[in-house]
Description:
There is one protein chain. This protein is α/β, with parallel strands linked by helices. It has three domains: 4-114 and 244-311, FAD/NAD(P)-binding domain, CATH 3.50.50; 129-239, FAD/NAD(P)-binding domain (3-Layer(bba) Sandwich), CATH 3.50.50.60; 330-396, FAD/NAD-linked reductase, C-terminal dimerisation domain (Enolase-like, domain 1). The chain is 23% helix and 31% strand. It is built from ten helices and 27 strands. It has helices at residues 15-27, 52-55, 68-73, 134-143, 157-168, 189-201, 248-252, 297-311, 378-387, 393-396, and strands spanning 4-5, 8-11, 33-37, 76-80, 84-88, 93-96, 101-103, 106-109, 113-115, 129-130, 149-153, 172-176, 205-207, 212-218, 221-226, 231-234, 236-239, 243-245, 261-262, 274-276, 281-285, 290-293, 323-328, 331-337, 344-351, 355-362, 365-372. Helix 1 packs parallel to helix 8. The longest helix has 15 residues, at 297-311. It is globular. 44% of the residues are buried.
Amino acid sequence: MPQRAYTYVIVGGGLAGGHAVEGIRERDRSGSILLIGSEKHLPYERPDLSKKLWFGKKKVENIFAHKEPFYAENGVDLALGVEVAAVDPGARIVRDAQGHEYGYRKLLLATGGEPRRLDIPGGALEGVCYYRYLDDYLRIRALAAEGKSAIVVGGGFIGSEMAAALNINKLQVTMVFPGPYLVYRIFPESLGRAIQAHYVERGVEVLTGDAPAAFEQKGERFVVRTRGGRALESEILIVGIGIAPSVGLAEQAGLRVEDGIVVNEYLQASHPDLYAAGDIARFPYQALGQMMRIEHWDNAVNQGKHAGRNMAGAGEPFTYMPYFYSDLFEFGYEAVGDVTAQLETVTDWEKENAKGVVYYLKDGKVRGAMMCDVWEKVEAARELIRKGARVTTRDLAGAIR
């Protein structure tokens, strides 16, 4: 028999899980809720770990999605620092690593993703930071004194943001990644190379087309030996090469998994009492007419809340179009839709590679847009994508500015 039965159990203490409480309480003020999270912290805003906390724009106590009284006021039992070992959909039971069992009527899996790790000699050395969690920030922040050296492995979102953050805090930063230029999976080449040149001007050493072959420790320093034959040394070693969705529980429970938990338009998994939201959910992106999994803050917030509402009986399809943003030194942008560099890109610059809009097209239709130093235009970009009309370069000139 379960230790206690709940109306709703939320597995995952990130933003999707935290905001699911809001969605549930919009529809159901009395149903019992259990939130289980493997981290010891309350749900928090993960983007701040590589942005505002480093720039002095936020303090740690201000990054949490809700203060602790929110959970008590909404009748939520918290089980933080607790690993879930199994889900039994037939018996409607969640079992934690200590063997405690909890019953549920509806269950949300919001377990996010685990940082991808390098399967190389020394890849598991103590002190190598696979940067993702608040505890990672706290540890690196304590080490990141002015004048120290840091190697950042990875040239995508986390790698580029962390390199900028450390450089602004006056560390000597070296980046190494296999791509041809920064954020190459998203940026068109001219933009990526222009941003990379700015990094170099700021004093960041950028090594492209290379990757670690081994990590070693040399006293209190790390040595990174690369496939290209380089030997790099630093006091801090950060790896930011993306995440893998945490689908172990879903697979054990027999749910349909394809690069994430496959859900329908209601964020419902292949078992009717189970839902998924956030980084882990592969969902039908209505405006694009395709299945997608999105690893960004806005998606986690809105999917979590939406899943909570549907768990409580709302029965509403998820049609929201999430956006994301980044700040790389003085260059900032917001983006929405499918923004992969493999698509055709059309640029509408007011100031080349600094201010303007990058459109991402497929079959002549706008599938995504990135607004560079152009603000409060996300909804205009969404409308272009929703229309799904064929466009020309002339049509796009000034369309969002």
